Amino acid sequence: MRTTTLGTHGPRVGVIGLGAMGMSFAYDMATPRDEATSVSVIRQALDLGMTLIDTADVYGPYTNEELVGRALADRREHAVIATKVGMEAIDPTGGPGGSPLVKPNGRPEHVRAAIDASLRRLGTDHVDLYQLHRVDPEVPIEETWGALAEAVTAGKARHLGLSKVGVEQIQRAQAVHPVTTVQSEFSLWTRDVQAEVLPYCTQHGIALLSYSPLGRGFLAGRFASFDELPEKDQRRRLPRFQQDNLQANLDIANGVRAVADRVGATPAQVALAWLVAQGPHVVPIPGTKTPKYLTDNAGAADVRLSPGDLAELDAVPAPVGGRY
Ligand SMILES: NC(=O)c1ccc[n+]([C@@H]2O[C@H](COP(=O)([O-])OP(=O)(O)OC[C@H]3O[C@@H](n4cnc5c(N)ncnc54)[C@H](OP(=O)(O)O)[C@@H]3O)[C@@H](O)[C@H]2O)c1
Predict the structure, then answer these.
(1) What is the pTM of this model?
(2) Is 130 considered catalytic here?
(3) Is the distance from the beta carbon of residue 50 to the nearest atom of ligand 1 less than 6 Å?
């Protein structure tokens, strides 16, 4: 797979990465997980050149990093491990629909303890990218970011990233320690970063890690009605997936499919190729626990969209329903 550099001084990674969240968290929680398959998907990702593996301490909660650690045990040096800190599970079943209830915790003492716990679960002595999952509204970002920077000084993290932030928060963090990446939802149906965050990142040599790049599966053409969503699945609470909105949003999925049919690719590949075409600093991290989807997603790196294809995708309708 072609590679790109994360930010100005970050590691080289495949132009498409892998998000590990759904292997243990958020989606289809009523179906028991096939951990052996998830482990092989992570290992296969490396073989395909998808070297950036994204996880977070709170995914699971606290089991997704262990899964990633198991998968990478004998090939640590081939992976660029990105994990996150700054959210904690305060009740394992107290969230909506019996999901874990999580909340931000950006206190420096939490970050200092969390990096050691993450390294233990991941089975490594350092992570390549340590990301602040959410800015804690009760803690100045400078204090939280300063604690992440201590992890770099201590050799426990190589580079730092932010998640779900605006330009002002990026600037405040930059004044304390360089920002290598910003992780934001970015896809054909979620483009708010194009207004300010993406231009800022481009100008300042910061990579944009695009999360939920497949619109949580919707842009890949997975869901034609609300009833197709699995039980105990975060998407059941999201406005865009409610039946009437979802029906209206099928125009978007159909627009992606039309281009895919024309260029001989799958809708998922077109959704990812559109992101890759936004510039070398945009790296999508699609999530999957399914071997055939992983191969499909890797193939997106070879899909070239013409200016006409890109214009057609740019023109798909805006979604009905907010993100949350
Ligand atoms: N920073 C944050 O706050 C934040 C928030 C959300 C996500 N993330 C990160 O971003 C990663 C990706 O986001 P996401 O998982 O929310 O959404 P996504 O990548 O947009 O979509 C994942 C869904 O799409 C399905 N899928 C994947 N490839 C497919 C293909 N080729 N064809 C058909 N269906 C396909 C998956 O199915 P299966 O799982 O059944 O294979 C899963 O249901 C996460 O794993 C996580 O690392 C970060």
Answers:
(1) 0.98
(2) no
(3) no
CA of 68 to the centre of ligand 1 (A): 16
Cβ 234 under 6 angstroms from ligand 1? no
Evaluate: CB of 21 within 6 angstroms of ligand 1: yes
pLDDT in tens, 84-127: 999 999 998 888 777 889 999 999 999 999 999 999 999 999 99
Q: How far is the centre of ligand 1, averaged over its atoms, from the C-alpha of 41 (Å)?
A: 13
Query: pLDDT digit string (tens) for 285-305?
Result: 999 999 999 999 999 999 999
- Token output for 140: 């100045």
With a 6 Å cutoff on the Cβ, whether 296 touches ligand 1 is yes
State the fold for domain 3-220+266-305: TIM Barrel (3.20.20)
> Separation of 149 CA from ligand 1 center, angstroms?
29
Map out the domains of the chain as residue ranges: 3-220+266-305
